[in-house]
Amino acid sequence: MEVLQEHQNMDEKPMKLWKKAMYLPYRKQIAKKWMDEFKKVWHIAGPAIITSVSVFSMDFITAAFAGQLGDVELAAVSEVQNVLLGFVTGIMLGLGSALETLCGQAVGAGEFNMLGIYLQRSWIISMVTALLLTPTYVFASRILKLLHQDPKISDLAGKYAIWIIPEIFASALNYSTEKFLQAQTKVWFMAFSSMITLAIHVLLNWIFVTKFGMGLVGAAIAGNISFWILVVAKIIYIVCGWFPEAWTGFSYLAFKSLTKFLKLSVASAVMLCLEIWYYTAVILIVGGLKDAAIAVDAISICMNLHVWALMFALGFTISASVRVSNELGAGNPKGAKFTVGVNVLISAMIGVVFSVIILATKNQFPRMFSKEQHVMSETSKLGYILALTIFITSIQTVFHGVAIGAGWQFLVALVNFGCYYGVGLPLGALLGYKFNLGVQGVWYSMLGGSLLQTIILFVIIGRTNWNKEALQAEMRVRTWGGPMENQ
């Protein structure tokens, strides 16, 4: 028996060694696959993060300069940024995001011939929309009062809103242009131009607000100049020959099939508007609480930091959108599924870092925006909730990128509506007013809506048939492709 057992052990050793030898190349293959995708993700996400942070920091800088003017000025700028700009940005970004699906999948399929036409159509639709939205800025003061906001803050916000009307039209061109560049992974120019523009914006604010003492009018002028510099730089980059296949000049084809293009754009706009307007509605709920100026200042400071952290996660939203759309357009469903996991993992890790930073500085970061003790105290109380919100949204935004890349805008719009407007906002009003939990109660409800949406999107993505999505992408490219459309 002992001899037999020894013989079996001798046979098992080579078998174990053989399995180990076979397993090592497999592990190396998996590791290489992760590393390759990691590089591709960061190649898109890195410059996108720089761009997002730089562009958002322009509003961040404006709020900081306004905060030095006084609490009412800060509250006025915050209401314009979070209510009016949130309203307009949701529409403009949504209209532009239709290009993420179309251009991304077309690039994956190697069909570049219609990208410039898509861009021009998006410009036309967005500029007309900007014109239609202009009255919301002209009558901003009345609108805010109808929404039961503080009259003094509303009057000042209305004056500021009129001065920043040129920004509406800059946004109309900017978001579409960004999607055109992102789909082709031409993102480094966007990063460099946004950083230079941010430096210019700081200088202009110092000149107009601090040096010349022009107050909020100076801040508005600085913002208008900065945003138009950013947009014009991108357009010049596109039309000056850097995209010979995708941009062949202005064409009458841009005015064809506008209705069909508008339908897809509206679906994208609805999805993103329901997301962005959710935060706007939260500001409005807070604006009706007791001590409105302090409450609005506190939640605006936290939202500014939340959105600033979100700009990092937005880099992976863009990366997920581009990589998923490219892989589906190329007919590679496994690649699309794999990149989802990589993007979620990296974004979640960054979310953890930001959450830890917020928790470590919850008593210090309010000083960046206000010198009032009541505002700083109220803001510090929101530190724990803010940290948790940042972590959840770092995952949530990647799921949005996946949805855009795959063309699920209408489905996600339904999810957003149910989670945010069916659960989050009613719960916020209940906790804030009925149970007198104030700003904290409103933020808890906002967090609950976001968490519910994240869970639902996780289930949807986990149950997705990626082979079917690749076939749908192929049909979308054929339907929207140049030869078929021209016929």
From TrEMBL:
PANTHER family: MULTIDRUG RESISTANCE PROTEIN. It is found in: Membrane. The keyword Membrane applies. It is a multi-pass membrane protein. This is Protein DETOXIFICATION. The chain crosses the membrane at residues 41-66, 123-144, 187-209, 216-244, 264-286, 298-318, 338-361, 382-404, 410-430, 442-461. Belongs to the multi antimicrobial extrusion (MATE) (TC 2.A.66.1) family. Keywords: Membrane, Transmembrane, Transmembrane helix.
